[in-house]
Amino acid sequence: MVDIDRRIVIMDSDFYESIDNESKFNTTKYEDIITVKISIIGDTNTGKSVIFNRFVNNIILPLNTSTIGVDFGCFSLIKNKKLYKFQLWDTAGHEKFKSITKNYYRNISHVLLVFDLGNKKSFDNVESWITDIKISGEKDIIIILVGNKSDSRRNVSFDDITKIMVSNSCISNYIEMSALDSEDNSLDIIKDLIVIDVEKILESNKSLTNIGSIKQVKIRPGIYYKKYDEDVSIPIQSNCCTIS
Q: Domain 4-22+29-243 is classified in which CATH homologous superfamily?
């Protein structure tokens, strides 16, 4: 039986306040470096690029911004003395780009599958996106389902969302958000959910993470680990480039 309540996170204050609230963007020290690769997918005009730019550049772009091909960016945060380096791909949602975007399901740890809460068709297409991920993606890829534009008129029922989660155990969590709302902290919750997933994976791979100073090793598709014997102080910054 799937515990849906634990997988649906809609601004759950009890969950969010339980997360370690370390400084994310100050110069700090770290012992371990974990690189996590993430793709953002979903229909066109669902707000994927707005979400991408808030992650990478902490800016809000207008909704009519469309991706041609694939955009790439990075951001970092510190949790539990670990440096998490996130590599993020924003993929085009138009059908004509699907042959390209399928390449970005490979060697990926997490997928953010975005639909528009005001556009029922974008939600109906979620099953098709999941099928593509299962065919072209990694075996253990984790999907976070994101219902965007929560500030607009809703045309997707909560019952329908629950049904799709029950039928697809690969969806780890569901989050509703408004990417255009600068006060919406759903992106921080998404980051924390991914960190929790990665921490569990690292815990199950202690033989790799407890061997002292090593070169970067691949823990599983989309997750890489590197350990240092001593702390190093660095500034945590974001950067972005575009692949068209």
A: P-loop containing nucleotide triphosphate hydrolases (3.40.50.300)
| CA gyration radius, the chain | 18
Would you kindly state where each structural domain of the chain is located, as residue ranges? 4-22+29-243
Better-scored residue on pLDDT, 178 or 96: 178
Asked whether the CA dihedral 179, 19, 140, 105 is positive or negative, the reply is positive
- Name the 3-class secondary structure at 243: strand
Residue-wise pLDDT tens digits, 9-65: 544 434 333 334 444 444 455 678 999 999 999 998 899 989 998 998 877 665 555
* The pLDDT value given to residue 91: 81
Alpha-carbon distance 1 to 202, whole Å?
Answer: 26
Alpha-carbon span 111 to 243, nearest angstrom: 19
CB 116 within 8 A of CB 45: yes
**Strand ranges (DSSP E) for 7-158?**
28-42, 70-79, 82-91, 110-116, 142-148
Top pLDDT among 154 and 229 is at 154
CA distances from 242 to 51, 56, 59, 72, 211 (A): 15, 12, 16, 6, 37
- pLDDT of 156 over the 90 cut: yes
State both tokens at 150. Answer: 């929560």
